[in-house]
TrEMBL record:
Gene name tied to this protein: ywlE_1
Molecular function via GO: double-stranded RNA binding; protein tyrosine phosphatase activity
Name of one Pfam family that matches: Sua5_yciO_yrdC
Domain of life: Bacteria
Alphabetically ordered keywords of this record: Hydrolase, Protein phosphatase
Organism name: Aquisphaera giovannonii
Keyword Nucleotidyltransferase in record: no
Protein name: protein-tyrosine-phosphatase
This enzyme's EC code(s): 3.1.3.48
Similarity comment text for this entry: Belongs to the low molecular weight phosphotyrosine protein phosphatase family.
């Protein structure tokens, strides 16, 4: 592919009329590998893509997109682990956002130190084009076709939005005749109102550069430290642990329990054997009221693999709970443990009297104080 493509009509692929979408994937990969610029759908309208192994293609991509001076071109990665290859110093908040929002409509802008990560291995010309202002932009698409193309590429894809004036919300048709594009893959109309949120990571925090599908509240939750407590039915032990933990952290941070999320901490509980929607036991409600907490509005929830994966710290009440969780999500082992630091089960008070509940709550509080010290909260 050369600058002749600026005057040549782009190859058009209609996925709806494709006998085998895999053939279209291979055609797109071949076009990109030869230095072409390809228009393809993401979950946030249509993008243009070029291979980072071809400086000419990336230069043309930048020109077609009309990217402002100093603004990076988003690089398509497969997930958080690959993001760390590009940005080894990615902050904890950045890792949480990548783990919880990707694949999806989120672009992370991160500082790029010279020679750091995969960016340092790019040809100098390409590096200056994708990261001209000392920042990298990283994205991870959920769109199957785009992911299929990225998986087969020998290098990575730089991406960009067409310049102002191209109504990508109309779909691929809006790109017909766009100069410099070698191939358009028509996946149908774009999803109206879906735009990527662009977030800049600075220090340990973040700020929104461009508002999109993921709003500020969702970002705050995704970037928070998540503590998850798990028992059987999520009506006594784990909700008591959740409420007591919130009280301890709120007192330490000088805020109300309801304000912990604003401080970057989310505390949750769930059960391994519940259909969900059940209130906390009356004994648990009374014990927590006496401790200054509240379980009146609690409703049980069933623990899911997704919830386990999103947790930063998971505390199970018994070894049976822990083993059940790890059998489904073995990758949680580094952050999943018994609540009791000494490796003992927390006995189930269900069906017992108020005094047993009071003793259980006291034991849970002592365990929590030790665990919170261990994790630095």
């Amino acid at each position: 592919m050369t600058e002749a493509s600026a005057t040549r009509a782009a190859q058009w692929i209609d996925l709806a009329n494709c006998d085998d979408p895999r053939d279209a994937v291979h055609q797109a990969v071949a076009c990109l590998a030869q230095g072409g610029v390809v228009a393809v759908a993401s979950e946030a309208a249509y993008l243009l893509a070029a291979s980072t192994l071809n400086e000419g293609a990336v230069s043309r991509l930048r020109a077609i997109c009309g990217a402002p001076e100093g603004e990076p071109l988003p690089l398509l990665v497969r997930g958080c682990e690959e993001a760390l290859d590009w940005a080894p110093a990615l902050s904890s908040a950045g890792r949480r956002l990548a783990q919880r929002a990707w694949p999806g409509p989120l672009v992370l802008r991160v500082p790029s130190a010279a020679g750091e990560g995969l960016c340092g291995r790019l040809p100098r010309g390409v590096r200056d084009l994708v990261s001209p202002g000392g920042e990298l932009a990283l994205s991870c698409s959920a769109e199957p076709f785009l992911r299929g193309v990225a998986d087969l590429m020998p290098g990575h894809l730089a991406t960009g939005r067409p310049a102002e004036g191209q109504d990508v919300a109309l779909g691929a048709e809006s790109l017909r005749g766009l100069a410099g594009v070698d191939m358009v893959v028509d996946s149908g109309p774009a999803r109206p109102g879906v735009e990527s949120t662009h977030v800049r990571l600075e220090g340990g925090g973040w700020s929104i550069l461009r508002r999109g599908a993921i709003d500020e509240r969702a970002l705050a939750r995704m970037s928070s430290v998540i503590l998850l407590f798990v028992c059987t039915g999520n009506t006594c032990r784990s909700p008591m642990a959740e409420a007591i933990c919130k009280g301890l952290l709120a007192r330490k941070l000088g805020c109300r329990a309801e304000e912990l999320e604003q401080k970057g901490i989310v505390v949750l509980s769930a059960g391994v054997a519940t259909s969900g929607g059940s209130p906390a036991t009356s004994q648990a409600v009374e014990v927590l009221r006496a401790l200054g907490g509240s379980l009146e509005s609690h409703r049980s929830r069933r623990v899911t693999a997704e919830l386990v994966r999103q947790a930063d710290h998971l505390f199970a009440m018994t070894i049976d709970h822990l083993e059940a969780l790890l059998s489904v999500v073995p990758e949680a082992e580094p952050y999943a443990m018994l609540l009791d630091p000494h490796g003992r089960d927390v006995p189930d008070p269900f069906g017992a009297d108020q005094e047993v509940y009071r003793q259980t709550a006291g034991a849970i509080e002592a365990m929590l104080r030790e665990r919170l010290r261990e994790i630095g909260l």
